[in-house]
Amino acid sequence: MEGPHVFIEKTSSRPAAKIAYFNKAAFQAYSNLIDEHGCDGFSIEVQDIAENKLQEYFAPDFSKIQNKDAIREIGVVGSGAFQEGYDLDGFKAFGNVKGLTTHNVSFRSKLPELFPKLEAWLNLDWKANEVEPLNGSWPNLASLSLQGFSGSLSTFDGAPIKKLFLISSTIRDIGDILRFKDLETLQIVSCKIGGDVSVLSGLKQLRSLRFEGKNKLEGWEQLKSSSVENLEASHYPCKRPQDGFPKLKNYSINAYRPRDPFYEERGDFGVLGDEFSSIFN
Prior knowledge:
With 281 residues, the chain is mainly beta. It contains 4 helices and 18 strands. The protein has 2 domains: 128 residues, no CATH class; 140 residues.
């Protein structure tokens, strides 16, 4: 069994200002450090699967955390499974959680019930933590990152999504994204996605747009926006993107291959990177 390790980090532009990162052994022994160091967030790394077999179960004990109302961000990452019969309602004690990271430890579709005030969700494995249609849950969910998603984004109807990251996901038609009328940042990476990309011209609040990886999208020459300031695309089949984006400040087009006939870069690449680096920014 791996020995305990923990580190504490101050953050900026996240729901939590100071996060304590534990592996499972450290959380069991030292979760009292959350209060002692004034942390308002914590993350637990679970590594209970080896050689494709579950080695042991996960049953976190929160009794050493006294100031549960102060917690604004929680992460449960890695691979494993909650112990059979473990009461997930224990997470409800953290009633002010705004940011959540999940991975390959399943919460069995209970996330909206456990974290009703959620504003930002980074889901690193949709199959492990798929949720049912929200139907009014998560009324404040503005930032959403999904990895391995498949199906319709109608699951999130009613949520005021402003920032959407789709990673290694399958979306039948890009028009499905238009349901999020107030979208400001959109990132699509290594996704199976088709349709007419120019429909994104209808997103009047869109400020930052990124495509990475090949796709079956069409209509690039008709894609225009009077609001986009930041643009990055690895397979953009057009010249002079600024013609369709009059407010464009920072952009990187086909930079993976500088000899590409459509290669072009300009602006502040630090700003460009920051726009797409984290769902919590």
